[in-house]
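FAQ

Q: What does a record look like?
A: Structure on top, sequence underneath. For example:
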């Protein structure tokens, strides 16, 4: 083809400046012309390439494909590795056309080494992923069975790759009860009716006979002709997750059962902003137990649902105290607080609760979570009130009994009588002493009749306690007369204790004792004896 000078210039300029690797190869297979881009890519100067056999630069493994393209009719494309100036090989993508009349081959090569390296790196990463990933990758076809069996599949199901390749997926992994379901799913994928996706969690068999739960994600593999040639499956062993889920469900059922069967309740809230924990609009979770305490249900419009709603259900007398404790808990970033207060129900009834607060704080002081447990204390408080009333009644009765147990009788002016009935222990001895001395002073008594008729068999300690009363009465100027069937026995014990008998008489009966005191009072005068009449010695 004859070109005018202008056209020839354009063609030469294109050849020299094009980024593509243009070349002309003669009938002898040697370079006749190369564009400057060859030097940029291979490091070889144009002079070194021109006249050199092209095959000498092609990798030995790629020469057959290169030769097959030479002389072929039409445009031929192939890829081969070309040896550069430093001895390394770079991948080139060739597009060549043979001119039979001129006996030349015109070629355009493109440097695809970066693409090849990227693809190689991607393949390496994919292989590494398949090796280490917990997700099993399985590819299967209707004709060839399993064709891809990743390392994760080996670990998951126990079959080595060479054992699995060529086997039918259903025969290898699917329990008999699930075969029909899996066959229908595979048929849908192979026919194109099912676009794939999550197949769900199903029970599968392992090599050693165990049954595991796996989550399957399937996708049809479509060829260039649009036909489905196989199915790619991604499989994750979720057996442990299923067991954890079962345990969690069991614990939840147990918790809900316990909550329904008890008078306790739980509440919990998480501030939207940990550093603004007092947002009144923060939603608060409340168990049915709390709603029951409040006399409400979750459907009630006035049921407290936000942090700011709690103030209207707390008893007015407790609201300020509870708010102060709540603010202190937040401001001091406490982990634990316990308090008791009252709720007011819609019907006006009162319920006492014990509230335990637990908080979780971030490292920078933000409130991450605030939870609490409420216990209905109404029955306990009622029982405590009843117990206090009973204790008060018992105390009043005990006082009355004490008074009856130590009856100080003024039988005549200046004469008092202490009847002793039953045992005399330490507590009663002190009580009798205090009551007797107080009566001597109050009544200005000169005589004390200690009647022990009701004491069946006083031991030595009881006698000692009675003797102490006698000695104390003598110090206040009162003469003691002991009466009763066993008076002589008591007198002997008192004498052995070292007490003075100057103001002491023992008579057989209370009647004789009273008669003695009246005669002595008449003979000695009405003011004889007593706390104010006793002479000083």
């Amino acid at each position: 083809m004859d070109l005018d000078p202008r056209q020839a210039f354009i063609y030469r300029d294109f050849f020299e400046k094009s980024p593509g690797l243009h070349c002309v190869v003669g009938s002898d297979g040697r370079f006749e012309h190369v564009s400057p881009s060859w030097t940029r890519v291979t490091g070889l100067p144009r002079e070194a390439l021109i006249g050199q056999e092209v095959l000498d630069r092609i990798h030995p493994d790629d020469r057959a494909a290169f030769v097959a393209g030479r002389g072929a009719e039409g445009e031929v494309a192939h890829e081969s590795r070309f040896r550069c100036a430093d001895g390394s090989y770079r991948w080139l993508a060739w597009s060549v056309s043979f001119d039979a009349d001129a006996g030349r081959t015109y070629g355009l090569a493109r440097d695809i080494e970066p693409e090849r390296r990227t693809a190689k790196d991607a393949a390496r990463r994919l292989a590494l992923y398949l090796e280490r990933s917990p997700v099993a990758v399985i590819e299967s076809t209707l004709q060839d069975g399993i064709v891809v069996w990743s390392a994760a599949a080996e670990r998951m199901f126990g079959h080595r790759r060479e054992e699995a390749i060529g086997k039918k997926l259903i025969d290898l992994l699917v329990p008999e009860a699930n075969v029909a379901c899996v066959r229908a799913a595979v048929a849908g994928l192979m026919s194109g009716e099912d676009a794939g996706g999550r197949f769900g969690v199903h029970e599968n068999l392992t090599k050693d006979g165990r049954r595991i739960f796996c989550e399957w994600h399937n996708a049809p593999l479509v060829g260039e002709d649009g036909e489905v040639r196989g199915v790619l499956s991604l499989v994750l062993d979720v057996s442990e997750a299923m067991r954890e889920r079962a345990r969690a469900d069991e614990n939840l059922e147990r918790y809900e059962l316990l909550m329904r069967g008890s008078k306790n309740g739980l509440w919990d809230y998480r501030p939207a902003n940990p550093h603004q924990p007092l947002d009144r609009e923060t939603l608060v979770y409340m168990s049915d137990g709390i709603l029951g305490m409040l006399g409400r249900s979750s459907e009630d419009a006035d049921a407290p649902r936000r942090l700011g709603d709690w103030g209207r259900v707390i008893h007015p007398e407790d609201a300020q105290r509870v708010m102060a404790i709540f603010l202190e808990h937040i401001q001091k970033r406490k982990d634990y607080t316990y308090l008791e207060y009252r709720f007011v129900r819609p019907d006006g009834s009162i319920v006492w609760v014990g509230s335990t607060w637990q908080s979780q704080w971030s490292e920078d002081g933000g409130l991450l979570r605030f939870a609490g447990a409420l216990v209905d204390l109404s029955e306990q408080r009622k029982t405590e009130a009843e117990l206090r009333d009973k204790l008060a009644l018992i105390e009043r009765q005990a006082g009355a009994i004490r008074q009856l147990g130590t009856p100080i009788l003024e039988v005549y002016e200046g004469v008092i009588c202490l009847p002793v009935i039953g045992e005399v222990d330490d507590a009663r001895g002190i009580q009798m002493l205090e009551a007797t001395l107080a009566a001597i002073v109050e009544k200005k008594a000169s005589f004390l009749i200690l009647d022990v008729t009701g004491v069946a068999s006083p031991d030595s300690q009881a006698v000692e306690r009675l003797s102490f009363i006698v000695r104390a009465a003598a110090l206040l100027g009162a003469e003691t007369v002991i009466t009763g069937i066993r008076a002589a026995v008591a007198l002997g014990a008192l004498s052995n204790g070292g007490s003075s008998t100057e103001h002491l008489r023992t008579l057989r009966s209370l009647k004789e004792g009273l008669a003695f005191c009246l005669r002595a009072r008449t003979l000695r005068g009405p003011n004889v004896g007593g706390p104010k009449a006793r002479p000083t010695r």
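Q: Is there anything notable about this one?
A: Residues 5-116 form a domain with the Beta-Lactamase fold (CATH 3.30.450.20).
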